[in-house]
Design brief:
six-stranded antiparallel sheet, alpha+beta, elongated, Thiol Ester Dehydrase, Chain A, 8 strands, two-stranded parallel ribbon
């Protein structure tokens, strides 16, 4: 795990692969809870029996936005940002869902720091991300996330 405590330390990582998270298993329980939270109960996510017979995947699949919502959790396994007043999710750019994540698939986040800007004391970081699916050639998604960090001092 990389530990970053200042803009200067962060700046040294521009262009670097920052690492990968541990594997996270997507369970049916997690999919169902996400469906409840988002009111998206489409059968392809929540009905395992119907998915076995009617889905081209022969299984339920995770919501695309569920996989996106894992970014903050998995990101914190890769880099620890210290000395902060505040951290803000600012945006997602060039996002492409490449492949569905089936129930019980394992996923992990891969991150590269592509740019860092100091905006009058606010650090704007842009990171290329990829959510890998274990034993699959294509990722679940690729894109860029933008976070804002306000370091103390």
């Amino acid at each position: 795990m990389i530990v970053i405590s200042s803009f200067q330390e962060f700046e040294q990582q521009v262009g670097n692969d920052l690492g990968v998270s541990s594997w996270h298993t997507i369970t049916q329980e997690q999919i169902n809870k996400f469906a409840d939270a988002t009111l998206d109960h489409q059968w392809i996510h929540t009905d395992p029996e119907r998915a076995k017979t009617e889905s081209p995947f022969k299984s339920t699949i995770a919501h695309g936005y569920l996989t996106l919502s894992l970014i903050p959790h998995l990101w914190k396994e890769i880099v620890k940002i210290e000395n902060l007043k505040m951290e803000i999710n600012y945006g997602i750019e060039n996002l492409r869902f490449a492949q569905p994540v089936l129930v019980d698939n394992e996923v992990r986040l891969k991150v590269k720091l592509t740019s860092l800007l100091n905006l009058r004391g606010t650090t704007k970081s842009t990171m290329a991300i990829e959510l890998e699916i274990k034993d699959q050639r294509k990722p679940a998604f690729t894109g860029e996330v933008v976070f804002l960090y306000h370091f103390i001092g």
